[in-house]
Amino acid sequence: MLSVIIPTHNRASLLKEAIQSVLDQDHFRDPSHTSEFELIVVDDGSSDNTKEIVDTFKGAVHYFYQNQRGVSAARNQGLKMSQGEFIAFLDSDDLWMKNKLSVQMSYMRALPKTMVCYTDEIWMRNGMFVNPKKKHRKYSGWIFDKVLPICLLSLSSAIFRREVFEEVGNFDETLPACEDYDLGIRAALKFPIPLIRSSLIVKRGGHADQLSKKFWGMDRFRVRSLVKALQLDLTQEQESLVRREIVKKSSILVKGFQNRKRLDEVRKYQALIEKYK
Question: Considering the domain 2-208 in this protein, what is its CATH number?
Fold first, then answer.
């Protein structure tokens, strides 16, 4: 079975389009694929008409409401509910191209030792197409060193075998954001992650409720993930890469907190720089 999990919070209008992009997949032209599929929406405490939107799909969606606990908890609840051997996530502000599942599922079935794969993306901001910067270039294979600077593994573009989560663990519920970056580090350490060089998802940005707009200094959460990563089974070279990235991101945060006159935070990240340089 394939389980698709959509976490959401107060995004009813965007959610409707996201769900429809899943149900419109050409993967479902084969009736057997429809019978081996479930779509789970985890509503993380929405106060809008999210449930009414889900109800318009007349039973095609498994809906679960929880008091607001954050996106990591919503993803973990979806994992708990899911039954599939294959797991796919779709953020409620993103869309899938019609051939997304057929391309990736064919790839995963043809290469049964592949534990996770991901795809290129189309980016939109405020309804306009934009080009990703050079630093956002995607890589394929053993990409541990590539996932440290930025969040390279976009969850909306990935398909996982369930064993990935059994091996590396679920999402860190102490992180209010960057939970995808945190998972990407753990997954890239354990498994090669092949890239399918086709743009099979649309990432829609620019709206006010994006987590990157809600939280200033997202590198705060990435630094926490990097410090945690030092407890993993790293080679000496990998540990050096992680320490270097902690120092780099902490240095950026020091400058930001200095500008905001938040001296306690400045001292905190200066201490991290001294510890890990």
Answer: 3.90.550.10
Q: Residue 64 — pLDDT band, cuts 50, 70, 90? A: very high
DSSP 8-state secondary structure symbol assigned to residue 157:
G
- Distances in whole angstroms, Cα of residue 115 to Cα of each of 34, 99, 107, 109, 216: 22, 20, 11, 10, 33
CATH 3.90.550.10 intervals, the chain:
2-208
Q: What is the DSSP letter of 232?
A: S
CB atoms within 10 A of CB 176: 15
Closest CA to 108 of 31, 7, 40, 27: 27
pLDDT at 213: 53
Identity of the amino acid at 6 = I
Task: Give the sign of the dihedral formed by CA 30, CA 2, CA 212, CA 232.
Answer: negative
Q: Has residue 121 got a pLDDT over 70? A: yes
Q: What is the mean pLDDT of residues 138-150?
A: 97
Confidence (pTM)? 0.94
68 burial class (0-12, 13-18, 19+ CB within 10 angstroms)?
middle
